Amino acid sequence: GQNIDQPTEMTATEGAIVQINCTYQTSGFNGLFWYQQHAGEAPTFLSYNVLDGLEEKGRFSSFLSRSKGYSYLLLKELQMKDSASYLCAVRDRSGGYQKVTFGTGTKLQVIP
Amino acid sequence: DSGVTQTPKHLITATGQRVTLRCSPRSGDLSVYWYQQSLDQGLQFLIQYYNGEERAKGNILERFSAQQFPDLHSELNLSSLELGDSALYFCASSKFQEGNTIYFGEGSWLTVV
User: Fold this and answer.
1) Most buried of A25, A93, B68, B98, CB within 10 angstroms?
2) Is the pLDDT of residue A98 over 90?
3) Rg of chain A in Å (alpha carbons)
4) Is B107:B90 a contact under the CB 8 Å cutoff?
C-alpha cells in the first residue's frame, strides 16, 4: 500500500511564494503528480516527476527526491485564483500492477 | 476542457437502486481511471482499465463494477446504492498505461436519497 502525507491547510499572501510538501511511502514508486482542484471541480494537472530534481513550469515548480520519498510544489507570485486544493498523487508499480493514489490534498487560501 | 466526457453530470436516485456512469476518454487515450470523491474527502482510486483490460483495482466495493468497451469508453455500475455512496465520481484518462499526464473529466455528482 501507500502512505501519502500532505499538510491539510495552508495560508499565504498574494504575491508571495508558498511551498506545499508531500511525503510518501511506497515499494514500487513510478512517478509523482501534482494537481490543482477547486471545490466541486475536476482536478487539473500541474506537474509530473519521475526522476529526482526540479521541474519548472511558469509560476509552478515541482521537486522530487526519490530516496527521501519527498516532493514539494512551489507556487510563486501567488494570485487569489490560486486558492484551491493541491493534490499530490503517487504511481505505484508493485504487486504486478500499477495504480495512481492521491493524498487528501492541501487546501491553500491566498489572502490579500 | 480536458477532453474527457462524463455523463450524467448530476444524478439523484433512491437507496437500493442501480445506476450507470459513463465516460468517454480523450481521443487517443487508451487508459481509463475511476475515482470517488466524497464531500471534503480525497480522491479514492476505484479501478483502472487499459485498452479494454482491467489493470489495477483500488478499494472498489463488490456492489460496484466497471468495464471498458472496444471503442474505449468506460462505464461504472453502482448497485444496491446506499446513502454513503453519494459522492462525485471522476473518470480520468491517459494515453498509455503509465502516461505522464492523466486528464480528469468534470465528474458525475451522485446523490442517493
Assistant:
1) B68
2) no
3) 14
4) yes
CB contact under 8 A, B90 and A42: yes
Phi-psi group of A27: left, alpha or beta (phi > 0 → left; psi -120 to 50 → alpha; rest → beta):
alpha
Written as nine digits, the cell of B27 is 481521443
User: B92 is written with which cell numbers?
Assistant: 480520468
Neighbours of A51 (CB within 10 A): 8
Mean pLDDT of the residues in chain B: 93
Which residues of chain B lie closer than 8 angstroms to A45, CB-CB? 101-104
Residues 6+ apart with CB under 8 A from B1: none
Query: Which of these, B39, B25, B2, B1, lies nearest to B75 by C-alpha position?
Result: B25
Q: Whose grid coordinates read 484518462?
A: B93
pLDDT tens-digit series, residues B5-49: 999 999 999 999 999 999 999 999 999 999 999 987 789 999 999
pLDDT digits (tens, 9 = 90+) for B52-97: 999 888 889 999 999 999 999 999 999 999 999 999 999 999 987 7
User: What stretches of chain B adopt beta strand conformation (E)?
Assistant: 5-7, 10-13, 19-24, 31-37, 43-50, 53-57, 64-68, 74-78, 87-94, 103-104, 108-112
- Strand, coil or helix: B10: strand
Predicted confidence (pLDDT) at residue A13 exceeds the cutoff of 70? yes
> How many angstroms away from the CA of A42 is the closest CA of chain B?
5
